[in-house]
Amino acid sequence: MPEKSRKILVSNALPYANGSIHMGHLVEYLQGNIWIRFQKLRGHQCTYICASDVHGTPVMLKAREMGLSPEDLTERVTAEFLRDFSDFGIEFDNYYTTHSPENEVLVGEIFETLRASGDIYTKTIEQAYDVQESMFLPDRFVRGTCPRCGTSDQYGDACENCGATYTPADLIDPISVLSGSTPVKRDSEHYFFRLSRYEQRLRDWMQSANLEKSVVAKLEEWFEAGLQDWDISRDAPYFGFRIPGTNDKYFYVWLDAPVGYAASFKNLCARRDDLDFDEYWRPGHETELYHFIGKDIMYFHTLFWPAVLQGAGFRTPTSVFAHGFLTVNGQKMSKSRGTFIKARTYLDHLHPAHLRYYYAAKLGPTIEDLDLNLDDFAARVNSDLVGKLVNIASRCAGFINKRFDGQLAAELHAPEMQARFAGAADAIADYYERREYSRAMRTVMALADEANRYIDEQKPWVMARDEQQLDTVQAVCTQGINLFRCLMIYLTPVIPGVAEDARSFLQEQDWHWDAAGTPLLGTTISPFRPLLTRVEPEQVRNMVEQSKQS
RNA sequence: GGUGAUGUAGCUCAGUUGGUCAGAGCGGCGGACUCAUAACCCGCAGGUCGGUGGUUCAAUUCCACCCAUCACCA
Predict the structure, then answer these.
(1) Cα separation of A51 and A49, whole Å?
(2) Spatial CA neighbour of A314 closest among A303, A306, A302
(3) Residue A439, CA: closest nucleotide via C1'?
């Protein structure tokens, strides 16, 4: 059923530019990328944006440590990000940086609008200050003894041992992580956003956004606790945008980071005639806006961000899609166990399609965590992708190529079966749309089982010995190839590279989602070459070994 | 500590608005086949559905508490 063409803008969360992309990040980018590829395959105008999140204290300090400017550091890191993304098949329509002129203008505009409507006020707060380094210290940069349980060397915001939360001022014997000196308390004037004013509007937005149940539960919890105003400023020195009208105040990184979505899009609009900024970012248009995020940053995306957008006269997101965290072999990623696996390390040993499929096979729309079990990974990928799916083509192509010069039959052998495969398109599309990737994968693999069973029952290898039955052999194998083709189209969003090779093997120019409804008959196909190889245990072992060392 | 989510066969996960709901895939075991990247096909497997109480004629599915894991506490 052809849908009306939609105009959709999608973002992934902006990776923070002080480290490398790892397997945990990839859950998010692959989830978003699969959705985008699906929408594009369906013929919708779908724009995919992202950027490096470059502001804030950690980047500033890391650059200082490396003897670089923050700009140079984040440029280097971004170049690395882009190579990793690209090699995993994650291609953005625009990948930008939050340290851009567009972003500075937008943040300034938003701030002025909010201030004009009375949503911004200043208040003096007391904060830890490192006299030796001449700077205010974020909570994470103060360590000391937990005032409740007495555990030493705890961060300034919470105790890892007893879970208590507090402020750095509560710590016993606090020290600055930067200089080792004892921080002093010092007053500073900060800018606050009146989030408390937005409760009703946020509740309304929450209703319209159709958020996942568990996300709503979390939001309800926050509403219950009462919305607190948000401190949106930081003191110099800070890498960020200076607040207009001040000399030493900067916007907190979490204010300008989400605005970076809009800025990245604005940057893209400048070179694309078919995209209009206002159509996607001002109220009153039919466009859709979605953010894929991790469950750890829901607060920013479901409270601050929609509130800021509303207050500043922008449209709010159509919805926000939150996902869970990655564990490896059932535990948090760990360097010593070799399970802190960087994207690049993975690519040194394994094919991106393996991971793309494995994540898809386990991803749903909820904020539940996802486990990358390395043994299961190899077994699942080998069985599903190689043993079931690619096998269908592999076992049929030989006959077509050797016995019929690569020519497919003019008619299908089992049209009712073909109709069932084609008929699954709507259900599978619905699963993709709702981000029920695991259900989509299960559906596809159940069909792959059927296809293998069909070939097994027909036994073309037996018929091939009898000249009289050659037509049937051709028809059966043509049928098998078409079942394979149908499933490959369904999997295009997940394993685009493999799908492309399959398409070229079938000598087709282009695939649209609806192509699954029209069988390929009478044409010629190329010699079959393995579309994907198995995951060898040794590759996984080597990857883990390398992760321990880096 | 508070709050939210999760806890089902060796592994990864479905499922139940309470009563054929104890399931799938993988692994394992047995068999068959040889077209296929030792792939594919057929059959078998019996896990107190995290623990303890409670509600009910009946709970894995509802409630309470506890334990474990993940996250958040701005």
Answers:
(1) 7
(2) A306
(3) B14
Parse chain A into domains and list their residue ranges: 1-119+198-228+252-323, 121-193, 386-517
Å between CA of A442 and C1' of B23: 14
Protein CA at A254 to nucleotide C1' at B4, angstroms: 23
Closest CA to A202 of A190, A192, A191, A194: A194
Strand B bases contacted by the protein (CB, 7 Å) = 1-6, 11-14, 25-27, 34-37, 39-42, 69-74
The gap between A253 CA and B67 C1' (Å) is: 39
Task: Identify the sign of the CA torsion A514, A518, A522, A528.
Answer: positive
Question: Straight-line distance from CA A410 to C1' B60, in Å?
Answer: 53
Please give the Cα distance from A171 to A150 (Å, whole number): 9
The DSSP secondary structure of A516-529, one letter per residue, reads GGS---S-B-PPP-
pLDDT mean for each 10 residues of chain A (550 residues): 81 93 94 96 97 94 94 96 97 97 97 96 92 90 82 78 75 88 92 93 90 85 87 94 95 95 98 97 96 91 95 96 89 84 95 96 90 91 95 96 96 96 94 93 94 96 94 97 97 97 96 96 96 94 89
Which nt has its C1' nearest the CA of A393? B36
Which CATH number describes the domain made up of A1-119+198-228+252-323? 3.40.50.620
A550 vs A540: CA distance, rounded Å:
16
Q: Residues of A293-326 as b/e, b for ≥16 C-beta within 10 angstroms? A: bbbebbebbbbbbbbbbbbbebbbbbbbbbbbbb
CB A314 within 8 A of CB A284: no
Residue-wise pLDDT for A269-311, tens only, equals 999 999 999 999 999 999 999 999 998 899 899 999 999 999 9
Q: Which amino acid would we find at residue A299? A: Y
Q: Which CATH architecture has domain A386-517?
A: Orthogonal Bundle (1.10)
ipTM over 0.90: yes
